[in-house]
Design brief:
The chain is of the alpha+beta class. The protein has 2 domains: 58 residues, no CATH class; 93 residues, Alpha-Beta Complex (H-NOX domain). It is 55% helix and 16% strand. It has 5 helices and 4 strands; from the N terminus they run H-H-H-H-E-E-H-E-E. Strands 1-2-4-3 form a 4-stranded antiparallel sheet, covered by helices on one side. Helix 1 packs across helix 2. The longest helix is centred in the N-terminal third of the chain and has 27 residues. The chain is globular and about 50 Å long. The termini are far apart. Bound molecules: ligand 1MF. Ligand 1MF binds next to helix 1, helix 3, helix 4 and helix 5.
Length: 185
């Protein structure tokens, strides 16, 4: 994945555990801690090793690290120059999720080494829908939960999300059940 992803993990870890915490994560992952280049493409293995090392160092399950990272990704990219893109994606969670593939298509056209996942929304009712997530990568469903929570925060919305149907094969999709809870006055 692009270094931007690993940089976001770095910033998240430093905000929680300081520079020393980050150095310890890198040592555990067998990686140099001298910084990732945002626009350089790295082997996915680097990211998976980082997540595993953060999980060990923070004493959290890898799923929780991925979820925290997904949530952080929204604030991180917003401040790293992708705020306009996020704003253009819509003004509500549901609208944004429906526009994600178009947005990813535009970013993917500029940075051809991106391997963007596909998202699809199946409406169920006024405030409930299924979110389908198809990725070339394995094990990242918890990150999607974090991404959706991060987006909901950005739009000041309340949401519950659960993995209703995990994929059993790389060519399948993970299916999440999403409910938007409207604020009771
Ligand atoms: O293949 C990749 O390197 C890659 C990197 C990041 C693919 C996807 C993503 C973003 N995606 C990460 C989890 C999905 C992993 C997977 O299943 O394969 C999150 C997608 C997302 C979901 C909900 C809301 C917002 C989302 O992301 C918005 C976004 C997506 C991509 C970028 C920024 C914001 C991006 C922009 C430039 C990049 C890399 C990613 O690379 C650079 C950076 C600086 C200079 C040149 C290129």
């Amino acid at each position: 994945m692009y270094g931007l992803v690993n940089r976001a993990i770095e910033e998240l870890v430093i905000s929680l555990k300081g520079e020393a915490g980050w150095r310890s994560v890198c040592a555990h992952a067998g990686l140099a801690s001298d910084g990732f280049v945002a626009m350089q493409s790295y082997n996915d293995d680097v990211t998976y090793r980082l997540v595993e090392a953060v999980s060990q160092r923070l004493g959290l399950p890898a799923e929780q690290v991925l979820e925290a990272f997904g949530e952080y990704w929204i604030t991180y990219t917003a401040k790293e120059g992708y705020g306009n893109m996020l704003n253009a994606g819509g003004s509500s969670l549901r609208e944004f999720l429906g526009n994600l593939n178009d947005m990813h298509g535009r970013v993917g056209a500029i940075f051809p080494q991106l391997r963007m996942p596909l998202f699809r929304v199946t409406p169920l009712s006024e405030d409930e829908y299924l979110l389908h997530y198809a990725s070339t990568r394995a094990g990242l469903a918890p990150m999607v939960i974090g991404l959706v929570r991060g987006l909901a925060k950005r739009f000041d919305q309340q949401v519950t999300i659960s993995l209703q149907h995990p994929r059993l094969h790389p060519l399948e999709e993970d299916i999440f059940f999403v409910r938007e809870v409207s604020a009771t006055p």
